[in-house]
Write a structure and sequence with these properties.
By secondary structure, the protein is mostly helical. 81% of the residues lie in helices and 0% in strands. Helix 1 packs antiparallel against helix 14, helix 2 packs across helix 4 and helix 7 packs parallel to helix 9. The longest helix is centred in the first third of the chain and has 31 residues. The two termini are 17 Å apart.
């Protein structure tokens, strides 16, 4: 268990570092590029991502399933999944190159074609790289993956700044983005080969299973993309570009925070798979219970802080030009309050992907219908409310189905008393701090920084001291920290 804790910390730390880097890079791009050029850059990423979804066959989720299957030889599963991924990447690459010749006329942007062709090769590299990431986690090379991820991201963004500042070239920027996943992938392949995992064989039966397991999840991916596109489509029809800009800048979740649950769940996939094969569903529920409580100790204080201090965050990050976006951001931050677990992993391992599909169909219908209805009365705020409500509805549907399939009680799966305590105390302390800052008319910068420093860390330490997280799992991490490791562990224990 301590090994899993170490791996979780490595992955979360690497995500945190990368998000901070990107967090600082995004405002730079907005300010450094003319609006038209930045718009073209955004269109390239949007089109590429959409084609990636259309050609993915949910390969990441599928890789997680096959890499966790102890009845199959990992080396064979690795080679087979990578073979399938390479084929899907080539198809995506060709589709994007063909589309690049029509895109300028469709979008009324003549520079779009050449930019798409420069960036097209990223589709092949990024797909392979993501599967290789899952393989590195499987063989417990999270520390290696952490250093590789951080170093390549720093190098990529450093070269990107040179491309913009020195060469004033968006094409060079996209070329750097396209090359980086290839380099990262080759390094991971070298590591796998060195560790003796590169001698597997293509298995045609596994290839057929990939389609069987992946196709329902593929439909889910397409339906799930409505989370991003439906509101933008409706705002474009019923409202205007300025309203869309306000919505887009507010409709962001804090990336590393929102993916903590996925990182932790991923590390337990092998355990889940083992217990499911043994039909030990109570143990699956017990592990999920611990994951949910542990994740909530981190998530809830941060979510509440950004909900209550959404105005300060938007003003500091995007300036008063996007002041109205804070309402959208506050609503989307509410989604973090249900990001305490992966809602699809158990259903996928149970081979119940059709239930995942049903949940997303309901989500899409709800999202589309409520966006149309609420946008007429509340504008972009209505779109945000519709999307957040639909996400909550989807989470409840998948949670309910999972619990019924496992044959356990809600109380076995979720510690409601612990979650209520974490949420209540977080609201009280952060809410009190917010009132004090407003009452004393503290400038927004100092209000944001001071409040964050004195509330979120204090709350997390307090919840750990209340034994909501079993800190003993993480002792091996603390003892490796020079000078203060043992003392810090004793303090938190």
């Amino acid at each position: 268990m301590s090994n899993k804790a170490v791996n979780a910390l490595f992955l979360i730390f690497s995500q945190a570092v990368n998000v901070v880097i990107l967090f600082l890079f995004t405002p730079y791009l907005v300010r450094a590029l003319p609006k038209q050029v930045y718009g073209s850059y955004g269109q390239v990423l949007f089109i590429t991502e959409f084609i990636s979804i259309l050609t993915s066959i949910a390969i990441i989720q599928t890789a997680m399933v096959f890499f966790s299957d102890t009845t199959k030889k990992f080396e064979d599963s690795l080679k087979t999944v990578l073979g399938f991924t390479f084929f899907a990447g080539v198809v995506a690459l060709l589709v994007l190159i063909v589309f690049s010749f029509f895109a300028p006329d469709i979008f009324g942007n003549q520079s779009l074609g050449s930019l798409l062709r420069v960036y097209a090769f990223s589709l092949l590299g990024s797909k392979l790289n993501l599967v290789l990431n899952q393989a590195m986690i499987k063989i417990q090379r999270s520390k290696f993956l952490m250093f590789l991820s951080v170093i390549t991201n720093v190098l990529k963004l450093s070269l990107a700044i040179i491309a913009i500042q020195v060469y004033h070239s968006i094409s060079a920027l996209l070329l750097i983005y396209a090359i980086e996943p290839f380099i990262t992938g080759l390094i991971q392949i070298y590591r796998l080969q060195k560790d003796g995992y590169w001698h597997g064989k293509l298995n045609m039966d596994t290839m057929k299973e990939i389609f069987k397991v992946g196709f329902p999840l593929y439909i889910v991916d397409i339906l799930g993309s409505s989370y991003t596109y439906i509101a933008g489509f409706i705002i474009g029809i019923y409202l205007n570009e300025e309203q869309y800009a306000l919505y887009r800048n507010g409709s962001v979740e804090l990336p590393v925070i929102g993916t903590i649950y996925g990182t932790i769940s991923l590390l337990f996939m092998a355990d889940f798979s083992k217990h499911i094969l043994e039909r030990n569903y109570a143990q699956v529920a017990e592990i999920k219970n611990r994951i949910i409580t542990t994740t909530s100790v981190i998530l809830f204080p941060i979510a509440i802080f950004f909900i209550l201090f959404s105005k300060e965050f938007i003003l500091l990050y995007l300036t008063d030009k996007y002041y109205e976006s804070f309402k959208i951001f506050a609503l989307f931050s509410c989604i973090l309050l249900i990001r305490f677990q992966n809602y699809t992993d158990i259903l996928v391992l149970l081979k119940k992907s059709r239930y995942v599909l049903i949940g997303f169909v309901i989500f899409m219908i709800s999202n589309f219908g409520l966006n149309i209805l609420l946008s007429k009365y509340f504008g972009i705020l209505g779109c945000a409310i519709a999307t957040v409500f639909s996400v909550y509805l989807l989470a409840f549907i998948q949670l309910h189905i999972t619990i019924k399939q496992l044959g356990v009680k809600y109380s076995q799966y979720i510690n409601f008393k612990a979650l209520g305590f974490i949420l209540g105390i977080s609201l009280l302390l952060i809410g009190f701090c917010k009132l004090c800052m407003v009452g004393m008319h503290v400038p927004i910068l100092w209000s944001f920084i001071f409040s964050g420093v004195i509330t979120v860390p204090v709350l997390i330490v307090f919840f750990i001291k209340k034994k909501l997280v079993d800190i003993s799992y993480y002792k091996s991490i603390f003892v490796k920290v020079p000078f203060i490791g043992h003392k810090l562990f004793d303090l938190l224990s």
